Amino acid sequence: RIPQKQINDYYKKK
Amino acid sequence: MLEARLEQAGVLKKVVEAIKDLVQDCNFDCNDSGIALQAMDNSHVALVSMSLSHEGFSPYRCDRNIALGINLNSLTKVLRAAQNEDILTLKAADSPDSLNLVFENTERDRSSEYDIKLMDIDQEHLGIPDTDYSATVVLPSAEFQRICRDLSQLSESVTIEASKSSVKFSCSGDIGNGSVNLRQHQDLEKPDQSTSIELVEPVSLTFSLKYLVNFCKASALSPTVKLSLSTDVPLLVEYKMEAGYVRFYLAPKIGD
To answer: In this predicted complex, what is the ipTM?
Structure first.
């Protein structure tokens, strides 16, 4: 299984 | 208040159909420039961003910012009552408890009216910066859908490799492996059937097929889809509409 990153790791809260 | 008349109810039907399996409850943010939506899926791996410009409506009126908190399952149930060709009018008050939808057939001898209860949704908005992607691929949306569906039979994930003249989708699973290679080509008679690649540098990234198959439910919105890739940045999958877009962002898998 390849680990999955999350969207929050790239884009920050406005 | 909001009052927005859409010539073709089919546009909203297709938008909701495209995103309802990814997100359940979301705010439709209305202001004078149009109606927009941003939401992440429950696992925070994918994000959908939708925009319908005021230019797509006639007339369009929205004096204040209004957030319509909608359960997409409920909206789907109501939109099932609309024909694709029906004229759809959305109405809401400034601090609305409900959204009013009226569907009229083109002959104007039938009109149906529905109200959907709204909900308070506390949603975080993410800032998505303008990105210069290493590779941008435009291909027929039906082709992309077929590739994702076929490869998802073999594996959970797909590696997308973009080079100067081709884009390769490959996967490997328990029963074996598979790949589809698309060469850049221009179809002059049917431009929507072309595959084009804009490349700054070659890129190879791995993504979950489950999400990509889900994104492909937006294929009815546009004959073509644009994939934008850069190393260690979420994949952008964009379906353009006449006056707007549906964009999906998918975080890559790592350690490949």
So the answer is: 0.94
